[in-house]
Design a protein that fits this description.
Elements: H1 13-29, H2 41-48, H3 50-57, H4 63-69, H5 72-97, E1 102-106, H6 113-116, E2 124-129, H7 131-144, E3 151-156, H8 163-169, E4 179-182, H9 191-204, E5 210-216, H10 221-233, H11 240-243, H12 252-257, E6 261-267, H13 268-274, H14 284-292, E7 293-300
Parallel strand pairs: 1-2, 1-4, 2-3, 4-5
Antiparallel strand pairs: 5-7, 6-7
Length: about 300
């Protein structure tokens, strides 16, 4: 179960969720017409080895990721990750075209955008995450031998701590426009930490800055607690419902809009069909996941 000041590496607790995302992106990239292609996602999974490499080799392995990602629910989760990746890739392309040269990835995990997106000259990408997650990522990318397409700076910090101070100490300039991303993050923070995160983004953002957030509507408490109890009864502490907080401080569109940002939400349930990946309405679990998620882009006047 989560607790104050808990920490993790890439294979434990919240860190392991980055592997599920990377595996989903890698599986999406193998489709005949992928929504997004992340060539590093499979590299990360293979670097971990075991069941994660077995996802792509067809080897017998611990069934945990294989069972989830190759189930009906997992197939739609892979679609979601492809769509989410495509949305935020387009967001960064628009921010770059508008002249933004500072990019901040909050809880960067195994995000490879510093390596795979065509950043304009002078772009600096700041990646914030737990120290051991960044250490794994740095080692794997160094062994792979590729160079980033922007200047990349690692900021090893827990987002529950004073991350704005760590970011500015790492060279971030609050007087220049910036583009922020909170992808797959808010659900792992309690409401008070979400509020502090939004406040930090706003305080460090000069006019002309951009922010992008993935958010979800909390589940009814009784359903959430039942799901968490099921995982614990099955000995699955460290699975999804034992890691997330079923909380939301405020809808991003409203919060940023009240502070001089122009925010535009996109419902995942509307976005997927536009990409040719509608979710089946007969599956209540998939439907609940899809209907709860919104992708939000905001611009600061």
């Amino acid at each position: 179960m989560r607790h104050d000041n808990d920490s993790w590496d890439i294979t434990t607790s919240v860190g392991s969720t980055a592997l599920f995302v990377a595996a989903s992106r890698a599986l999406e990239a193998r489709k005949p017409e992928p929504l997004a292609v992340d060539p590093y996602a499979e590299v990360f999974c293979r670097a971990v080895g075991g069941e994660w490499a077995g996802l792509f080799d067809g080897a017998d392995a611990d069934p945990k990721p294989d069972h989830i990602l190759h189930s009906d629910f997992g197939a739609h989760f892979v679609d979601f990750q492809g769509a989410r990746t495509r949305y935020f890739d387009a967001y960064f392309a628009a921010a770059s075209a508008a002249g933004v040269r500072q990019v901040v990835l909050l809880a960067a995990g195994l995000d490879s955008r510093a390596y795979r997106l065509p950043w304009p000259d002078g772009t600096v990408v700041y990646e914030l995450d737990q120290p051991r997650v960044l250490e794994f990522k740095h080692r794997v990318l160094a062994e792979h031998g590729d160079e980033p397409t922007a200047q990349r700076r690692e900021i090893a910090v827990d987002l529950r701590d004073d991350w704005p101070a760590a970011l500015t100490a790492g060279g971030f300039d609050p007087s220049a426009p910036s583009a922020w991303l909170a992808e797959g993050l808010l659900m792992y923070l309690p409401a008070v930490a979400q509020q502090e995160l939004f406040t930090g983004i706003d305080a460090l953002s000069a006019p002309g800055s951009w922010a992008a957030v993935e958010e979800s509507v909390p589940m009814p408490d009784e359903i959430f607690e039942a799901k968490r109890a099921e995982e614990r009864a099955a000995g699955d502490d460290g699975s999804f419902f034992t890691l997330v907080y079923n909380q939301r401080h405020a809808p991003a569109e409203e919060w940023f809009g009240e502070r001089g940002w122009v925010a535009e939400p996109t419902l995942l349930a509307d976005y997927l069909p536009r990409l040719g990946r509608p979710a089946p309405t007969e599956d209540p679990e998939v439907g609940a996941m899809i209907s709860a998620i919104r992708l939000v882009t905001a611009n600061k006047r």
